[in-house]
Amino acid sequence: MFDMIDWGRVEYLYALLAVPLLMVLYVLGSALRRRRLRKLGDAPLVRELQLGVSPARRSIKILLLCTGLFFLVFAIARPRIGTALRELKREGVDIIIALDVSNSMLAEDIVPNRLARSKGAISRLIDQLRNDRIGIVAFAGDAFILLPLTSDYAAAKLFVSTMDTKIVSTQGTAVGAAVGLAREAFESEETKYKVLVVITDGENHDEEALEEAAKASAEGVVIHTIGMGSADGVPIPRFNNGVRAGFHTDRQGNVVVSRLNENFLRRLAGAANGTYIRATSSDAGLQTILEQIDSMEKKEFDRREFSDYDERFQIFLGIAFALLLLDAVLAPRVRDRKKQKDMEHVN
What we know:
Blueprint: E1 4-7, H1 18-40, H2 43-49, H3 55-76, E2 79-88, E3 91-92, E4 94-100, H4 114-128, E5 133-139, E6 143-150, H5 153-161, H6 175-185, E7 194-200, H7 207-218, E8 221-227, E9 234-235, E10 237-240, E11 243-247, E12 257-258, H8 262-270, E13 276-278, H9 286-294, E14 299-300, E15 304-311, H10 313-329, H11 337-346
Parallel strand pairs: 4-5, 4-7, 7-8, 8-13
Antiparallel strand pairs: 1-2, 2-15, 3-14, 5-6, 9-12, 10-11
Helix pairs in contact: 1-3, 3-10, 4-5, 6-7
């Protein structure tokens, strides 16, 4: 009894879409051929004049070709069957990224803007993770868990790519709510192996964030903060249907300027034994934080079972070769000696 079937190059299975496409083209081509033949004259007479033409053989050839390509794609995708099981020890830490998605993160003092730069950096960080679990919290005027802790890095990157300023309806920078929500997302019984990375401009804040950071520290959470933006501040672009329509203004009509609050972010990181890093257009700071995470004590996650695999592509390759060879040697026409003699007699 086989334990597992796997694919060495599963992305090549997308080539299977070419098989139904080829069938559709054949059907359309046959219909076009019949239409042209009808224009030549009486259909039974035209068929009689088509000496040796065999529609059945043409159909068999296209069937052989499509089936052969089907098995060839399977062979290229390298099907493998698991035989021997082994266990692999996994050690890592739990990492939650809390990303500010408020309108101020659209400011362009970091190219292309604060939010886009943050998302790109998070995606690159995920690419470098090996055994750690990662979760995502989105916050603006409120906070919610976008992705619970997981080791599915592909899913994490997908969720990060979808983040924008519209996923949280309430505007603001509720860092305290984000920290409190992250505390709940961690496994509370543990007092280490937990890292929270807060990425924000830190513009709006209150003492709640520092209180939540102190509680998180007592629970073993290390909080690193990354400041996005400049202390001088820049206007916040306003968009209408994806087209820039000026800048955000306050009730008095003055252009709103978003400034990085470094002092607050330093205090937030310091309250939970973490580090504050200011991002730039060339470095978002996550690489430095990743190095600190790598130096932390790791915990053992659930033990995973992996299989050794035996390649089985040879079977599919053999079938594909046989079908394609048969298609190559099968002529699309059949010699009808009686019809040929009748035609010669007429001549």
